[in-house]
Design brief:
Shape: globular
Helix content: 40-55%
Structural class: alpha+beta
Distance between the termini: 41 Å
Largest sheet: 6 strands, mixed
Number of helices: 8
Strand content: 15-25%
């Protein structure tokens, strides 16, 4: 860890901060109020054919929200994390091309940090390029494998920390990806057959609503 200051501020090399002089000031004030993690509620995403603004709704418990679903994140970037907690959670694995944050955020929130999401836009996320899994031009099969491996690794690492409802959520997502890969399908079918059927139904509705919301 080369950082010599007490906070880690994340900014991808191909993205940028929203041009607002108050952003850093607001983050600094929030950290001085004793918070361990700070993020924002909105983000601008720029695509080849235009741009959109995504908004993160407030949730009762960010820890539970993060554990409920493998693609839930704590608000929108930029993310600022107290260095001591960042290291205690193991940091981000820079050897991974995609998905290292899936495990990192869950390990971090299992430490019960004090978290604050600031209302507003602070980050511009560029999706016009082709240099990573989210933005890139790698084959669909390769992309699916990378996503599956990242989620499966996080699922195995966190398994004992997840309650049954959360495990079911993850298993349904992993089953969906397994169906696309045409591999390991029986693993998650068998796991779900052993689960509480009512919880499975509720988990399916939860995930379906999340997917529909993304496209509405």
């Amino acid at each position: 860890m080369q950082c010599s200051y007490p906070y880690i501020f994340t900014l991808d090399s191909d993205d940028e901060l929203y041009p607002d002089d108050s952003i850093l000031e607001n983050i600094a004030k929030t950290l001085m109020d004793g918070f361990d993690i700070v993020s924002y509620s909105n983000i601008i995403k720029i695509f080849p054919n235009g741009q959109t603004v995504e908004t993160m709704s407030k949730v009762k418990s960010m820890k539970e929200y993060i554990l409920n679903y493998p693609l839930n994140y704590p608000g929108k970037p930029p993310y600022v994390v107290k260095k001591l907690l960042y290291l205690k959670a193991g940091g981000l694995n820079t050897d991974e091309k995609w998905g290292e944050a899936i495990l990192f955020w869950r390990k971090l929130f299992l430490l019960n940090p004090k978290y604050k999401m600031i209302d507003g836009i602070a980050y511009i996320y560029h999706l016009e390029g082709n240099d990573n899994v989210s933005k890139g031009s790698i084959s669909q099969d390769k992309r699916i494998d990378i996503v599956y491996n990242s989620m499966f690794n996080a699922y195995n690492t966190l398994f004992k920390k997840l309650d049954e409802r959360q495990r079911i959520n993850w298993e349904i997502v992993l089953l969906g990806i397994s169906l696309m890969r045409k591999k390991n399908i029986n693993i998650f079918i068998n796991k779900l057959l052993e689960r509480n059927k009512l919880l499975c139904f509720k988990a399916f509705i939860y995930i379906l609503c999340k997917r529909l919301k993304k496209y509405l």
